[in-house]
Design brief:
The protein has 613 residues and is an alpha+beta fold. Among the domains are: 86-132 and 438-546, RNA polymerase II/Efflux pump adaptor protein, barrel-sandwich hybrid domain (OB fold (Dihydrolipoamide Acetyltransferase, E2P)), CATH 2.40.50; 138-187 and 380-418; 234-341, Four Helix Bundle (Hemerythrin (Met), subunit A). The chain is 52% helix and 16% strand. The chain has helices at residues 40-71, 134-186, 190-247, 251-284, 289-318, 322-376, 380-406, 411-437, and strands at residues 81-83, 86-88, 93-104, 109-114, 121-122, 127-131, 439-441, 446-451, 458-459, 471-488, 500-504, 512-516, 519-520, 527-534, 539-540, 544-546, 552-556, 572-574, 581-587. The strands form 5 sheets. Strands 3, 5, 8, 10, 13, 14 and 15 form a 7-stranded antiparallel β-sheet that branches. A 4-stranded antiparallel β-sheet has the order 1-17-19-18, with no helix packed on it. A hairpin with a 7-residue loop joins strand 11 (500-504) and strand 12. Helix 3 packs antiparallel against helix 6 and helix 4 (251-284) runs antiparallel to helix 5. It is flat and about 195 Å long. It starts with 39 loop residues before the first helix and ends in a 26-residue tail after the last strand.
């Protein structure tokens, strides 16, 4: 229920007082109103005292009435409500971009040109400055010259190794030529003649096997001819059957089928009559039962023949069906495929066997020729040719050895040349990389907020050590700004990550900006850095945060009521103030379900009252 009270602002320890009549329970000055019995002088003194008391009461009443008129016309009612209690924490900070990069040069040198200025927008990869390339290009030329000399020494070593290979090959050719000459001069040995005779015999056996296989295949070919003839006959029969089906039924066939039906009907009728006659004779006992059974069987056979004859006549009159024509066409296709397979298989096998016979015949001829040469022995011209080959091989070996001697180097020199070549290649790559780094590009897209160097000035390398190097430009992403403030350690406990804040900047003095606290530093110092995103530039003040949200019961400071109504005393407990409202931490009008008053003692100096029943 709302508490009706008038709280005077500036009261000691937050205690309210009640305007109007004097509170009950106070001791009255009885020594002033007791009766006097001591004469007129004492009565006069009593009258004077009464007049003074009346005048003093009128003065106090007038003063209180004038004060109530000054604070407002009459008393006002205020309802205790729950809401946010603002706790202000003000400080001065700076506005920084969320992301900014100082662009430095990877190489030291003189700046030849700066292509951007403060306030320019740059894209990622855009060229922003150039460094003088003269010294680096001179170093690159020197490195390339040294590398060429080192590689020349390596080429000499490669040539030496190549000549070494040539010497080995010349020695091998010389040895082969000498062995051939010695064989020719010594003449054929018995082992060689025997081996040649064995090769001739093996070639002859292979020839006989090939001829035998060919003969067998030719014999089988005759049988294949029979198969081919049978296949050709099947093809002709299939073609005739297909042509007959396509041509349809002839009149002669229909008449023949009708005659067959008539014969079958006559035979069936005779069989029926014979069965009747045999049954009559059986009843009279003139014939045995077997004669009657035989007649009955003949009746069944005659009926079956009559049925087949009638079906054949019906088929002839109906003509050929499409499925019969398709089946006949399929039989013809199958017969033609079998005929083609027989012809192809025979031709391929015979051709292969003939080739095998020809190769075997050639092998026999070569083996016989080799055997004949061995038996005849070496001729003079062969020996002379072998000797010439030996002389050529010796000359080639001598030339290879001479070339190797001229360029022979120590292995240690070769190793040093290889190491120097690798080192110079690395130096070349490094210089080329530094040449590429003379073109300084933007590492990110953003706005140039600072240009710290001009063309003609010298710059140091930014990769020689951490934190070294002179910035050329500073690029920032101004799409999102943040505020960094240094908050005293006494006030930082009132702030939390996620709280909102109001920010004022010098550039917009009449506009309040909003931000959200994203980070509070945890360094153990007497001040803490607080960071919050903000879309603005410049300096700001103040930084305001809320205390405990939504749980403070509050009434306007300097409570009042409506005119003409008497205030009602309620015991309350004051807490923190936000210069506008006094939070009520304890009130007799607010109880829990059990009926006991709720007490909250988180304030520094709580003022407690005991509730009256």
């Amino acid at each position: 229920m709302p508490a009706q009270s008038k709280c005077g602002s500036g009261q000691a320890q937050g205690q309210g007082f009640i305007a109007g009549t004097a509170p009950r329970g106070r001791d009255e000055p009885r020594d002033l109103i007791r009766p006097f019995r001591q004469g007129d002088s004492q009565l006069k003194l009593l009258k004077i005292a009464v007049v003074l008391i009346v005048v003093a009461g009128a003065a106090v009443g007038g003063f209180l009435w004038m004060r109530s008129r000054k604070n407002g016309d009459g008393l006002r009612f205020a309802t205790v409500k729950r809401g946010d209690l603002a706790v202000k924490v003000s400080d001065v900070g700076t506005v920084e971009p969320r992301l900014k990069v100082e662009v430095k040069s990877k190489v030291a040198g003189r700046i030849t040109d700066v292509l951007v200025d403060e306030g320019n927008w740059v894209e990622k990869g855009q060229t922003i400055a150039l460094v003088d390339r003269t010294e680096l290009e001179r170093n690159l030329e020197q490195t390339l010259a040294d590398l060429e000399g080192s590689q020349a020494r390596l080429r000499v070593e490669s040539a030496r190794r190549r000549y070494g290979t040539q010497v080995a090959q010349a020695k091998a050719r010389l040895e082969a030529a000498r062995a051939n000459l010695e064989n020719l001069q010594a003449g054929p040995r018995r082992q060689e003649v025997a081996r040649a005779e064995g090769e001739v015999e093996s070639a002859r056996i292979a020839l006989r096997d090939a001829e035998s296989s060919l003969a067998q295949r030719l014999s089988l070919l005759k049988q294949g001819v029979l198969r081919r003839r049978q296949a050709e006959s099947d093809v002709k029969a299939a073609k005739a059957a297909l042509a007959q089906l396509k041509a349809g039924t002839r009149t002669e066939e229909v008449r023949s089928a009708e005659a067959a039906v008539q014969r079958a009907e006559a035979t069936s009728e005779d069989a029926d009559n014979e069965l009747k006659r045999q049954q009559q004779l059986l009843e009279k006992g003139f014939v045995p039962q077997q004669r009657a059974d035989t007649a009955r069987t003949q009746v069944k056979l005659a009926a079956a023949d009559l049925k087949r004859a009638r079906e054949q006549l019906g088929l002839l009159k109906a003509g050929s069906r499409q499925e019969e024509i398709d089946a006949a066409q399929a039989r013809l296709d199958r017969a033609e495929a079998e005929l083609a397979a027989v012809q192809t298989t025979n031709d391929q096998e015979i051709a292969g066997l003939k080739t095998k016979v020809e190769l075997a015949t050639a092998d026999v001829g070569r083996a016989e020729e080799s055997l004949s040469l061995l038996k005849e022995g070496s001729r003079a011209e062969q020996i002379e040719a072998a000797a010439a080959q030996v002389r050529e091989a010796e000359a080639a070996l001598t030339a290879a050895k001479d070339g190797q001697t001229e360029i022979d180097l120590a292995q240690e020199d070769v190793t040093q040349a290889e190491a120097a070549s690798r080192r110079l290649e690395q130096t070349r790559d490094n210089v080329q990389t530094q040449l590429a780094d003379t073109v300084i590009q933007a590492p990110m897209a953003g706005t140039v907020i600072d240009r710290a160097i001009e063309p003609g000035e010298l710059t140091t390398s930014g990769v020689s050590a951490f934190g070294q190097g002179q910035p050329i430009v500073t690029i920032a992403d101004l799409s999102e700004m943040r505020v960094e403030a240094r908050i005293n350690e006494v006030d930082v406990a009132r702030l939390k990550v996620g709280q909102t804040a109001q920010v004022k900047v010098d550039a917009l003095p009449d506009k309040k900006l909003k931000g959200i606290i994203r980070q509070i530093s945890v360094h153990p110092t007497n001040a803490y850095f607080v960071s919050l995103p903000l879309l603005a530039t410049g300096r700001f003040r103040p930084l305001t945060s809320l205390g405990r949200s939504g749980y403070s019961s509050r009434v306007p400071d300097g409570g009042s009521g409506n005119a003409g109504e008497r205030p009602e005393r309620r015991s309350v407990l004051y807490g923190r103030q936000d210069r506008v409202r006094d939070p009520v931490l304890f009130s007799c009008a607010r109880r829990d379900p059990a009926g006991s008053p709720k007490r909250q003692t988180q304030t520094s100096k709580p003022w407690r009252h005991r509730c009256k029943p």
